[in-house]
From TrEMBL:
This is 2-oxoglutarate (2OG) and Fe(II)-dependent oxygenase superfamily protein. Belongs to the iron/ascorbate-dependent oxidoreductase family. Residues 218-293 form the Fe2OG dioxygenase domain. The keyword Ligase does not apply. One of its GO terms (molecular function) is dioxygenase activity. It comes from Arabidopsis thaliana (Mouse-ear cress). InterPro entries: DIOX_N, IPNS-like_FE2OG_OXY, IPNS-like_sf, Oxoglu/Fe-dep_dioxygenase_dom. Keywords: Iron, Metal-binding, Oxidoreductase. Its cofactor is Fe cation. The lineage of its organism: Eukaryota, Viridiplantae, Streptophyta, Embryophyta, Tracheophyta.
Length: 293
């Protein structure tokens, strides 16, 4: 067996051993490891490219939604038009923007973060019943969706729940966070519909419900990412470079930061967490729809 085949065989063996534990990256940390395993180690050039030059002071646009969906219909035409213009400009130039004053209570945002963390930090045996890569299930938990296909694994564990259009029951979700996940999903669905209205108007469409009528806001998948403490954070990534395959992604950041976006296809820009803010990302499917209008 040549050296390339040997390396591939060793890597597959590592991946299988890791998968069989059903405890993810959190399990590695709990075992007391002092070094990042080879399967997670990114090449130095990849890691270096993620560090923005100090001279760059870019920030993604922040859009005030003036209370969100509850007040949107009653806003004066000037305020509404200003919102539409800002969201259109941000979508065209960045593909990303932050929204504040969006109408989702701060305590809901904090509770869902606490709930996701509680799920990942609970006893491993309680999580194992959800460990699966079968996405026909309402709720799954795993480490790295692309574990067996990516060049390197990322330092994260993920819970994934399909919240709409066919919502899960309480029995489908973890006891530790199921209730707040349901509440958060309802809030996000409302916010998503508002953003699709604004985007429809920004695109110059005659009907503000155009994107909603195309079922762009029909489904919702909730991902709860968890990044355990890393013994060698300069050797791996929590999440590798990617685009989202959705119409729209709404990101609720944790308090530690680490989220970056690629601007002008060359600059990685940090997005520091802002209390109460949500980051909106135009996904691949929405960009395809825009091209066809």
């Amino acid at each position: 067996m040549d050296s390339t085949a040997t390396v591939a065989s060793d890597r597959l063996s590592q991946l299988n051993s890791f998968e069989e534990t059903m405890t993810g990256v959190k399990g590695l940390v709990d075992s007391g490891i002092k070094e990042v395993p080879a399967m997670f180690r990114e090449p130095p050039a990849i890691l270096a490219s993620r560090k923005p030059p100090l001279a760059l002071q870019f920030t993604i646009p922040t859009i005030d939604l003036n209370g969100g969906v509850v007040y949107y219909k009653n806003q004066d035409s000037v305020t509404r038009r200003s919102m539409v213009e800002k969201i259109g400009d941000a979508a065209e130039k960045w593909g990303f923007f932050q929204v504040v004053n969006h109408g989702i209570p701060l305590d809901v945002l904090e509770k869902v973060k606490e709930g996701i963390r509680a799920f990942h930090e609970q006893d491993a045996e309680l999580k194992k019943r959800f460990y699966s890569r079968d996405h026909t299930r309402k709720m799954v938990y795993y480490s790295n969706l692309d574990l067996f296909t990516a060049m390197k694994a990322s330092w994260r564990d993920t819970m994934c729940a399909y919240m709409a259009p066919d919502p899960p029951t309480s029995e489908d979700l973890p006891e530790v966070c199921g209730e707040i996940m349901m509440e958060y999903a309802k809030e996000i669905m409302n916010l998503g519909e508002l953003i699709f209205e604004l985007l429809s108007e920004a695109l110059g469409l005659n009907n503000s419900n155009h994107l909603k009528d195309m079922d762009c806001s029909k489904s919702l998948v909730l991902f709860g990412q968890y990044y355990p403490p890393c013994p060698q954070p300069d050797h791996t990534l929590g999440l590798s470079k990617h685009t989202d395959f959705s119409f729209l992604t709404i990101v609720l950041q944790g308090n530690l930061g680490g989220l970056q976006v690629l601007h002008d296809k060359q600059y990685w820009i940090d997005i520091p967490p802002v209390p109460g803010a949500l980051v909106v990302n135009l996904g691949d499917l929405l960009q395809v729809k825009e091209v066809t209008f």
